[in-house]
Write a structure and sequence with these properties.
This protein is mostly helical. It has one helix and no strands. The longest helix is centred in the middle third of the chain and has 80 residues. The protein starts with 5 loop residues before the first helix and ends with a helix.
Length: about 90
């Protein structure tokens, strides 16, 4: 088969087209996977941040209730102490 034959040129062009198609498909597939990865990462990050905010809010509310309880206890102790002194 001669390098200049129509069959050789056709074969070379078909191989080139096949390789180019595979490379292009691979690039598009990788880009899609990377985009999905970034979207999933962002979703997980936001979900984690929301969870941490809820956890902090719950902890703050627990501490506020504890402080209010201690305040009432101290007020009761002070009232009893004042009554005892008077």
């Amino acid at each position: 088969m001669s390098n200049n034959s129509i069959q050789a040129k056709f074969l070379k062009n078909m191989i080139f087209i096949a390789v180019a198609s595979i490379v292009l498909w691979s690039v598009l597939w990788i880009q899609g996977e990377y985009s999905d990865f970034n979207a999933e990462s962002e979703r997980l990050r936001l979900e984690y941040i929301q969870f941490q905010k809820a956890l902090i809010k719950q902890e703050v509310n627990n501490r506020v209730r504890l402080i209010q309880l201690r305040k009432r206890q101290v007020e009761n102790i002070i009232k009893v102490t004042i009554k005892d002194r008077v």
